[in-house]
Design brief:
With 98 residues, the chain is an alpha+beta fold. It has one domain: YlxR-like (Hypothetical Cytosolic Protein, Chain: A). The protein is 38% helix and 20% strand. It is built from three helices and five strands, in the order βββββααα. It has a three-stranded antiparallel β-sheet. Strand 3 and strand 4 form a beta hairpin. The longest helix is centred in the last third of the chain and has 22 residues. The radius of gyration is 14 Å and the shape is globular. The N and C termini lie far apart (41 Å).
């Protein structure tokens, strides 16, 4: 009997929901200390995952859950960029569902 392929499980830093790695967006703190979106999910550095719900992005950014998960301070400019990305992601998801 063949074994089933294991799907990596990740946890959203906003809502603590678990799911497959591809169900989340990865945010990474690179070795040089910058914080950025990792669309491929394979960039070097410490990563954290956020699902596409607006409340998750808001909680992750305003309650410093993302900063705590990445073990770094997030500058206001980067925080604003991440917030815009989260809003754009939510709009794209809503467009696809309709």
């Amino acid at each position: 009997m063949p074994t089933a392929k294991r799907i990596p499980q990740r946890t959203c830093v906003g809502c603590r929901a678990t799911g497959g790695k591809r169900d989340f967006v990865r945010v990474v703190k690179t070795p040089d200390g910058s914080v950025q979106i990792d669309p491929g999910g394979k960039a070097n550095g410490r990563g954290a995952y956020i699902c596409s719900k607006p409340s998750c992005w808001e909680d992750a950014l305003t309650k410093d859950r993302l900063a705590r998960a990445l073990r770094t301070a997030i500058s206001p400019d980067v925080r604003a960029e991440l917030r815009r990305f989260g809003e754009q992601l939510v709009l794209e998801t809503a467009t696809v569902e309709n």
